[in-house]
Amino acid sequence: MMIDDQVMEALELLERERGVPVETILDALANALVSAYKRSPGAAEEARVVIDSGSGDIVVYAQELDEEGNVTKEWEDTPDDFGRIAAQTAKQVIAQRLREAKRDQVFNVYEGREGDLVTGIIQQVDYRYSILDLGDAEALLPGSERIPYERLERGNRVKAFVLEVRNEAKGPQIVVSRSHPDFVRRLLELEVPELIDGTIEIKAIAREPGHRTKIAVSSNDPNVDPKGACVGARGSRVRQVVNELRGEKVDVVEWRDDKAQFIAEALGPAKVQEVRIDEPNETAVVIVSDHQLSLAIGKEGQNARLAARLSGYRVDIRSDLEEANAAAEAAAAEVAGTEPDTDSENAEAEGSIEAAVVEAVEVAEEASAAAGETAEEDVEVVAEAPAEPEEDSAEPEEVVSDQDDVDDAPETPSTDEQSDEVAEDGDDPIEDE
Prior knowledge:
By secondary structure, the chain is of the alpha+beta class. The protein folds into 5 domains: 5-109, N Utilization Substance Protein A, Chain:P, domain 4, CATH 3.30.1480.10; 111-177, CATH 2.40.50.140; 256-337, K homology (KH) domain (GMP Synthetase, Chain A, domain 3, 2-Layer Sandwich), CATH 3.30.300; 338-375; 388-432, no CATH class. The chain has helices spanning 5-18, 22-38, 82-110, 181-191, 193-196, 226-231, 236-244, 259-266, 293-297, 302-311, 320-336, 339-384, 388-401, 415-432, and strands spanning 46-51, 58-65, 71-76, 117-125, 129-133, 138-142, 157-168, 171-177, 200-208, 212-219, 249-254, 272-278, 283-288, 314-319. The strands form 4 sheets. A 5-stranded mixed barrel has the order 4-5-6-8-7. A 3-stranded antiparallel beta sheet has the order 1-2-3. The protein has a 3-stranded mixed beta sheet with strand order 9-10-11, sandwiched between helices. A hairpin with a 6-residue loop joins strand 1 (46-51) and strand 2. Helix 2 (22-38) packs across helix 3 and helix 8 packs antiparallel against helix 10. The model is unreliable at 342-346 and 373-433 (pLDDT under 50).
């Protein structure tokens, strides 16, 4: 029995086109024929099949083994209808070997391509995963690696990032991603040749898929603006990346060695007034004007989160008004820290003053009472001595009588009369008392 020439020619063609050696296929065919021989009636328990690669002859040798597994007897035992069995088996083996060869070939092609960018056509879409036809292989796009809220339709051509290549029993499995941060890196490299030749370097990427991506770039050539090179004329370069990301915003930030300047750049488009860095704790306090606060924080804190991821620092954003209030509160707290002693001194002083006031009031009341009693005594004394005013009024009479030059003067009330009137007027209140 022998393999016909057409089968041998097919094997040689497979070797040239698929890289599958003829000897490998013939060995697999021999093993398959041994299994087919053992299923035939009257077959020996052990056998081996020899295939001549030159002529295609197939010979079956039956064997007897001892207890240790050594061959003690061997003879030719090729069945008469073994040609038909061999032909059917050869087809199955060749088909299996072709599948295995294709799997090995695909695995060898994509094994070292983790991190590369591939383009495929969507063949199947499901909430769990999508399948992309890469031409010579199929790639799996899990739901967790898709861009949120992105609509993928069958037949669409999309790009993806090769995340992992696994060689499994069913064949190699290529896992791709569209939400990985390096996916944006590869897309930008397609549009910016300066990234390929090393003139511009991507230092860091922070991404929230479907919303916003921040890329920090630096230039190894002082004559090349890294940010302008990535954005392109009127944003032509970065626009291609945004289109592939289905409208996701991409911010290109210039890398700074000074962390304070870099964090200020990363918080763009907000304008930053001041950045205070705490190196040991890797934190940064950012001061912005009050009307820039919401822009610096971003929607649901997105801008601040991306800036923190990009810089590696914990970012605390405050408005200038808030900072001024905090400074005032801190100053008040510092002053309040010295108030307890002052309060106690003031309390003691107030207590002593209050006691002094009470004492003074009591003394004043006593003095007032004493003064009232003294006044009453004086009034009584005056009431008991009415003669004193008469003696005072007698003296003026003597003075007037001694003056001769006033005899012709008109009559006026004498001093005694005035004194009497005064005395009379003064007697009334005394009597009333």
